Amino acid sequence: MLRSLLIANRGEIACRVIRTARAMGMRTVAVYSDADAHALHVRQADEAVHIGPSPAAESYLRGDRIIDAAKAAGAEAIHPGYGFLSENAGFARAVIDAGLVWVGPSPESIEAMGLKDAAKKLMRAAGVPVTPGYDGEDQSPDTLQKEADSIGYPVLIKAVAGGGGKGMRKVDKAQDFLAALESCKREADSSFGNSQVLLEKWITSPRHIEVQVFGDSHGNVVHLFERDCSLQRRHQKVIEEAPAPGMDAATREAICAAAVRAAKAVDYVGAGTIEFIADASEGLRADRVFFMEMNTRLQVEHPVTEEITGVDLVEWQLRVASGEPLPLKQKELSINGHAIEARLYAEDPAKGFLPSTGRLDYLLFQDDGRIETGVEEGDAISPFYDPMVAKLIAWGETREDANSLLFKMVSSVEIWPVRTNAGFLSRTLEEPDFLDANLDTSFIGDRLQTLIPEEVAGDEVWEIAAECALLNVVRSDEGLAGFRLNSTPQVSITLSHQGETRTLPFEAAIAGSTCYSDDERVLVFDYGTTYEFEKAVRRTGQHSAHDGDILAPMPGKVIAVDVTEGQQVEAGQRLMVIEAMKMEHALVAPFAGTVAELAAHQGQQVQVEALLARVVKGET
């Protein structure tokens, strides 16, 4: 068994690996960038090694520095987590060549499954059904346009490298194809250093079904059943569950057997996931499930599989990497109950899900259920990395039980001043079609506006805020959940929220309300959404922004500027694109007019609310 382990990652997955490794008696070594010098994974590890500046390209993506750190710390093995270098065959080979143990599949397996086009060809040969499409070498725009026209619209453009929803575009009509192709290729090149794409037929009523597989160095491969990851936004998973609702025994047997064949085709060792797309227009059927890709690593959503099987997948990874056979045979694995996971992100749904960064002054989770996180109160959400705050996982005897617990967990999240998607998640979990398991990958997109919580507080929230302020709620050691009456309450109080001011009377305390009050503000936590009220009217700056001011919505890098000063623009016309937290954000003209000022250039790093451009109505 391994005695020491370096985790080549950060955040919640680093903390997750550290927990199991230490329970197995291993000494753990963390790595960290400048931004993560005081991060939770650094505090939890037995030892930590600095590997570079804050940008991932200068730290967590520097395989040479990570290997040097492992040698300096005396670590025997490297666990890559997920993301960063976890599916980089070159890094895996460098780890092995350095005389270290690589906790993952062989470089050859990673290479075989790393490019989606090559993987599809390999799967066809292994008898695994694949989605109709084009994965040829000719990448000219004309050829890709002709192939898309031949496949028929809608069609999906997908980067052959990487994952996480990046480098993917759905195109509904032929005239939109070339613009979508350009954007997809640019994002793929920026994210993965590879702009090559493939095309797939867009599946009607698609369900994203994936199978957890595991292999060892003794020739054994098993599956640990399926997960449903259909609830996505912009191709990124939001809510995952296991087992897949509506999966009958015959379809499960067929899809899991296909996953095992896929893993065996590349002599797979370690934890991996075979991802399928299912045409669920007539329910889940074995003849309508197609291979999409293989993730040659541990998945973000692996906890739901652990919850229904009782298996610690990280422990299995470490045992297999130590040369041991799989702890269980296929016949010894079974499904127990149901588990659902929600990804809690630092983002503002009311502002187009823009990332929200900064210090977590308040952070409180409910004790029930399972929380996987890489932060504690007082830590910060950095603009340099993925904005995940935590994964909330609930298990129950039935899907209804699991969802009820997860809804309670999500609705009870208390975070400030960083904004999160907790309110959005709570609304999703109580959506009637979700409760009835009427799912497909367009579920969130079709209901987006109804799932986004109101940014402005309603009358009841105003009343809770007033009573909270008048009763002088204070924070206890257990959280922001208690009233304390220090003196006779005032008769009324004046509060300000989102530009509105109200004077409210004291009535009676609302039992069970979750809120916090100090000398300056009141916070009301309402089903995952936080509303801030000021006890004094918010002062405005000396100069108010013009209606046509285009401000940076978050810290980031300007990667494209599409206009020049003096240019006439139409309402909604794209002016420039900012890249932040590995995602592109287009900024558009708020109305028809003239670009009177252009204050940013391509390649420029900008801070939040920096003036980028100014549009004025009419001609100048």
The amount of helix comes to 25-40%
Strand order of the largest sheet: 14-13-10-11-12-15-22-20
What is the β-strand count? 36
Our count of domains comes out at 6
Could you say what the CATH topology of the largest domain is called?
D-amino Acid Aminotransferase, Chain A, domain 1
Description:
The protein is an alpha+beta fold. The protein has six domains: 4-103, Rossmann fold (3-Layer(aba) Sandwich); 115-130 and 207-336, D-amino Acid Aminotransferase, Chain A, domain 1; 132-201, Dna Ligase, domain 1, CATH 3.30.1490.20; 344-448, D-amino Acid Aminotransferase, Chain A, domain 1; 459-534, no CATH class; 549-617, Beta Barrel (OB fold (Dihydrolipoamide Acetyltransferase, E2P)), CATH 2.40.50. Helices cover 26% and strands 30% of the residues. The strands form ten sheets. It has an eight-stranded antiparallel β-sheet. The longest helix has 17 residues, at 249-265.
List strands and helices in order, with pairings:
Layout: E1 4-7, H1 11-23, E2 27-33, H2 40-44, E3 47-52, H3 63-73, E4 77-79, H4 89-97, E5 101-102, H5 107-114, H6 116-125, E6 133-134, H7 141-151, E7 155-159, E8 168-171, H8 177-192, E9 197-201, E10 206-215, E11 221-233, E12 236-242, H9 249-265, E13 270-279, E14 289-295, H10 302-309, H11 313-321, E15 338-345, E16 347-348, E17 354-355, E18 358-359, E19 362-364, E20 370-373, E21 380-381, E22 388-396, H12 399-411, E23 414-416, H13 422-429, H14 432-435, H15 443-446, H16 448-451, H17 459-470, E24 492-497, E25 500-505, E26 515-517, E27 521-526, E28 529-534, E29 549-551, E30 556-561, E31 568-569, E32 574-580, E33 583-588, E34 593-598, E35 605-606, E36 611-617
Parallel strand pairs: 1-2, 1-4, 2-3, 4-5
Antiparallel strand pairs: 6-9, 7-8, 7-9, 10-11, 10-13, 11-12, 12-15, 13-14, 15-22, 16-17, 18-21, 19-23, 20-22, 24-25, 26-27, 27-28, 29-36, 30-32, 30-35, 31-34, 32-33, 34-36
Helix pairs in contact: 4-5, 12-13
